[in-house]
Write a structure and sequence with these properties.
Strand content: over 45%
Largest sheet: 6 strands, mixed, barrel
Order of helices and strands: EEHEEHEEEEHEE
Structural class: mainly beta
Distance between the termini: 7 Å
Number of strands: 10
Number of helices: 3
């Protein structure tokens, strides 16, 4: 079973992520013969308290995804209102030639305007629902399975 095992970072459950245009936007580009932009590689942080994945403004500006509207979500520090975009988000497999461990081709994400340094994506329960997360506290490790 493909998996990704990592040690806890100073930030917590940190792992690589890919963010790109949503599947429908890619299909439209393909059909019209336009070039397909590569997804953006970045750093993600698993946030089990968030029901929505959040992506930094900097990453969203690089891929220029479709804006859907605005929404409000609850966080530990209160309500947060933000713009909503449709993108694809994946957790890449560490082995070449194997697809991502988790992938949502059409995921609604909230723009993250005040990110943590070095973190591009807060991975919420919407993306975590696509994989298995095993946390080994005594070893300070976590594993993501497809």
């Amino acid at each position: 079973m493909p998996h990704l095992r990592l040690s806890l970072s100073a930030n917590g459950l940190e792992l690589p992520v890919l963010v790109g245009l949503d599947g429908q936007a890619l299909a439209t580009l393909r059909a019209s013969g336009q070039p397909i932009p590569a997804p953006i590689s970045g750093r993600g942080l698993i946030d089990t308290a968030s029901d929505i994945t959040c992506v930094t403004s900097a990453v969203l500006n690089r891929i220029n995804p479709t804006r859907i509207g605005s929404a409000t979500t609850n966080t530990m520090s209160g309500s947060l209102k933000g713009r909503i975009f449709e993108v694809s988000v994946g957790i890449p497999s560490p082995r070449r030639g194997i697809g991502p461990l988790a992938l949502q081709e059409r995921l609604l994400v909230m723009e993250w305007q005040q990110p943590l340094p070095g973190i591009d994506v807060l991975i919420g329960l919407d993306l975590l629902a696509e994989c298995v997360l095993l946390f080994d506290g005594p070893r300070r490790e976590f594993t993501v399975f497809d």
